[in-house]
Specification:
Length: 511
């Protein structure tokens, strides 16, 4: 395959030049960027305060953290803390309440879905230490310089959507705990401010926060199990549904749980670029997959349990009709004052989930334009928080509709993107090294023609198989029972055509 790669040599390394914080890489490895006085002031402030001012610039080996014995434990705890959240409990509710699954069916489908999605997160996380680049900068080596910008835009929408969902959920909990005296928008603003503070200071404070936040979150969720668990209905129900309907509902819930996890894949390496390049990929994969799997399995099972107990608990019926956040607060109701305190502490989960999505969206904004890296990431982070806070205040009455449509829709493009990443790394460039210093030079990166054409096929598959309230594709209509196959057809169509398209591109273009 060597003759395919004339002009594109990912294994050839280029010496880095410029200031120690690598602002010379902001335009390309060949065109140094003049450093403004404002950027120098930001760099000085960063060194004095500990705030992370670095944006999408590559972290070179000499800037990485030293190897530490607790590296893999910190990776595990980061994903554990980030995923012990109320929005994942809400996903679990849909197993029995929307798809009519009993405890056993929902537990098996939900657990398998989040484990598979978590494995995708664990794999993409490994590219952070390997490259020193953020996730969607790494995928410039797979999709090309320009197509990766489209993925950045899509991921910004995904992360802002998560931020909005978490803020709404936090606002609903505070409204319920206060007995209606504190308006939902007030709770939304509280969650937003806490998120802004940590996300603006950077990944270092975030990693410190997640090292300990999981303890409180585990305790609160354990109290929820003790308080609400007696009302869970874990017996198998005898239903009159047809086998086709049962199979469709199982697949739909499995897909929803998979989507709730895999939506983190385009951001998963962002938090590990400071780890040393000697970090073992297989151990990192296991640590990341295990941390997210454990957290999402626990929260999804809690959601399933709450949904199975609604019919036998009048208080839960009223709460579920009011809002998903009200149901979470109602699960502590038999603990009275202490239960209200636990519901408030549950907001830590919303903050933990909001921090990484806010941080990554700021990085993605810098990747959109040529001059994006010149805009300080903390300023972009502030802008994002304002945007999704306003959206949350406007749309706080529609959390159910947002959750039902948001996760599947975002998963369509992510699985197509993931298929391209897997095939490029494991089939096209298998065994080759990458020159990570050319991350911002479009002339040294793939053109992305094959990836773009494959994405078109992936979108076609998603449209043909999707089944949402606003549109049902022809393949989904042809099924004997409603089932959303958009995610699976998007992945399958992309995976089938990408490898041959890419080989042709290498033959003709050479990179």
């Amino acid at each position: 395959m060597a003759d395919f790669e004339q002009g594109y040599h990912p294994h050839v390394r280029v010496k880095e030049t410029g200031p120690s914080f690598h602002t010379s890489e902001l335009l390309s490895t060949d065109t140094p960027l003049k450093i403004s006085k404002f950027q120098k002031c930001i760099a000085i402030f960063s060194r004095l305060s500990g705030v992370e001012a670095r944006g999408i610039e590559r972290v070179s080996d000499d800037e990485r953290q030293s190897p530490a014995p607790d590296t893999y434990a910190r990776i595990f705890l980061l994903w554990l803390s980030s995923s012990l959240t109320g929005n994942n409990i809400i996903v679990g509710l849909y197993g029995p309440s929307l798809y009519g699954l009993d405890w056993n069916e929902a537990t098996i489908c939900g657990t398998l879905g989040v484990i598979l999605g978590s494995m995708c997160i664990g794999y993409m996380s490994t590219w952070g230490p390997k490259s020193g680049n953020r996730t969607l900068v790494v995928t410039r080596y797979f999709l090309g310089y320009y197509l990766s910008k489209a993925c950045c835009l899509l991921n910004i929408l995904t992360m802002l959507g998560y931020g909005m969902v978490n803020c709404i959920l936090g606002g609903q909990v505070i409204y319920t705990v206060s007995g209606g005296r504190t308006a939902v928008p007030v709770g939304i603003i509280v969650v937003a401010i806490l998120t802004w503070f940590i996300a603006t200071l950077g990944v270092h404070l975030f990693q410190l926060y997640t090292r300990y936040a999981w303890i409180i979150q585990i305790l609160i969720l354990s109290i929820m199990v003790g308080s609400a668990g007696p009302s869970f209905n874990t017996s198998s129900s005898l239903r009159q549904d047809t086998p086709e309907a049962i199979a469709s509902n199982r697949l739909s819930f499995f897909s929803l749980c998979l989507a709730s996890a895999i939506t983190w894949a385009p951001a998963s390496a962002d938090y590990f670029v400071y780890l040393p390049s000697t970090t073992k990929s297989w151990r990192m994969f296991l640590a990341g997959s295990a941390g997210m799997s454990l957290a999402m399995t626990l929260t999804t099972l809690l959601g399933i349990g709450l949904a199975t107990g609604i019919d036998s608990n009048p208080a839960w019926v009223n709460a579920s009709l009011a809002s998903p956040g009200s149901l979470l607060a109602a699960s502590f109701s038999n603990l009275h004052g202490f239960g209200r305190f636990c519901a408030i502490i549950l907001l830590l989960g919303a903050v933990s989930n909001n921090i990484p999505c806010t941080y990554s969206a700021g990085l993605n904004l810098q990747m959109l334009g040529r001059y994006g890296p010149r805009i300080p990431r903390p300023l972009l982070t502030t802008l994002e928080v304002v945007v999704y806070t306003v959206c949350a205040i406007v749309a706080h009455k529609y959390l159910r509709e947002i959750m039902e449509n948001f996760l599947p829709l975002m998963s369509y493009w992510i699985v197509a993107w993931f298929a391209v990443c897997l095939e490029e790394a494991w089939i096209i460039q298998r065994g080759r090294d990458y020159d990570w210093t050319v991350w911002n030079n479009p002339h040294r990166l793939p053109m992305g023609l094959a990836a773009g054409a494959s994405f078109v096929f992936g979108i076609l598959g998603a449209v043909l198989g999707m089944s949402q309230s606003y549109f049902v594709g022809p393949i989904a209509k042809a099924l004997p029972y409603d089932c959303d196959l958009g995610m699976w057809l998007a992945f399958g169509f992309t995976a089938v055509v990408y490898a041959p398209f890419r080989l042709v591109e290498l033959r003709i273009v050479g990179r």
